[in-house]
Write a structure and sequence with these properties.
The protein has 374 residues and is α+β, with helices and mostly antiparallel strands. The protein is built from 10 helices and 20 strands.
């Protein structure tokens, strides 16, 4: 008899989990409380971002996830762009960090280049030249449009005989071998809880006992009159303080001291500024990071103004228009772990806490963790 599994949560972590289970011979039921995914999985840049992951397992998981994204996009006809990424430097401290990262990443065999200002001008003319020292370009990174990507993956999985989606089913209870949702009981051999920020509802005692916190971020979607391509995803110097793969750069502490002195409000709100571009030419810009468990539901224009002000230091966005603003919330581990995996009761598993790397790591992490327990 075919093995069965239930996945609670139809965000990218749940979808990646369901894909892994199905590929390993399970029939899978995916249960979600809403009629479509509306959480953090659709409220992000759409960046699949190996450059942000440190060498070794995490980088390899990011690369594996990237290949799975490409396979799904190619199989469904969904748009994606192998746009790479560009980190730009406008101070000597930023340039020192980029040179150190180039040496480190080059040793690791990553596909990176150090670009001069003139090379950047030729390849990426939207980048401001004034005071530009240069940039670090990586060809690893992908862009998908999260507004359609998660829905497309859901539709793609649903075409398989053996994968069933139950939307608008709120899960009330989970036990060994069963899930109660929408007033009905569903049975399965194994159950995976991939509920994202909704960590208080199911197994709250587990989540209160581990170092997990929620993060709220503010983002914007913008348009430019000409719909020109910016050519890649572009990040300012603040982003050098954000990713764990950058932490071994010897000059990073000098850069952090400089930012603390010159840009304290940016560090206070956890702001680092990057921009990605999607198929129709629209641009996603962000973001801030506020940590806690309960957040004010209202966006702060002050934070968006800080983001836009910094964006204009490395791209001329003066004629870009804001067409949407939003916030997203995701759980993140506080102890430096890249995710949380647990079996609180027999044959019931929790997978959560991927932080801002859900689009980057989910497919690889699901293959690693789920295959261990099936």
């Amino acid at each position: 008899m075919k093995k069965s599994a239930i996945v609670v949560g139809a965000g990218i972590v749940g979808l990646a989990t369901a894909r892994t289970l199905f590929n390993n011979g399970f029939s899978v039921t995916i249960i979600d409380k809403t009629e479509r995914a509306v959480g953090a999985s659709i409220r992000n840049f759409g960046m699949v971002w190996p450059i942000g992951q440190p060498a070794g397992e995490l980088y390899q998981l990011a690369k594996k996830s990237s290949q799975i994204w490409k396979d799904i996009c190619d199989g469904t006809g969904m748009w994606y762009s192998n746009s790479g990424s560009l980190h730009v430097a406008y101070s000597i401290e930023e340039w020192m960090v980029l040179n150190e990262l180039f040496a480190q990443f080059d040793k690791e065999g990553r596909p990176i280049q150090l670009l001069t200002p003139s090379q950047i001008a030729n390849k990426f003319p939207q980048v401001k030249q004034n005071n530009l020292y240069g940039g670090l370009y990586s060809s690893d990174e992908l862009i998908v449009d999260p507004r359609i990507a998660v829905a497309t993956v859901s539709d793609y999985l649903a075409t398989n005989d053996g994968i069933l989606f139950l939307w608008n089913h709120t899960v009330q209870e989970v036990g060994t071998g069963f899930v109660k949702a929408g007033g009905k009981v569903f049975n399965a051999d194994k159950i995976f809880i991939c509920s994202g920020q909704d960590i208080e509802t199911l197994f709250p005692e587990v989540f209160t006992s581990i170092p997990i916190v929620k993060c709220k971020l503010q983002m914007m979607r913008m348009s430019m009159p000409t719909n020109k391509s910016i050519g890649t995803s572009i990040c300012g110097g603040l982003s050098l303080l954000h990713y764990s793969s950058f932490k071994n750069a010897p000059s990073l502490s000098k850069l952090q001291d400089k930012m603390l002195t010159e840009m304290p409000e940016y560090l206070k709100h956890g702001i680092h500024v990057m921009v990605s571009q999607h198929e129709l030419g629209e641009l996603t810009v962000g973001d801030s990071h506020e940590y806690g468990y309960t957040f004010d539901p209202f966006d702060q224009q002050y934070i968006n103004d800080l983001i836009l002000r910094y964006l204009n230091t490395f791209i001329d966005a003066s004629n870009w228009g804001v067409i949407a603003t939003w916030n997203g919330v995701y759980p993140k581990m506080k102890d430096g772990s890249s995710w949380f995996f647990s079996e609180p009761i027999n044959e019931v598993y929790l997978l959560n806490g991927l932080g801002g790397a859900g689009m980057t790591l989910s497919f690889g992490v699901a293959e690693k963790m789920v295959t261990k327990v099936i």
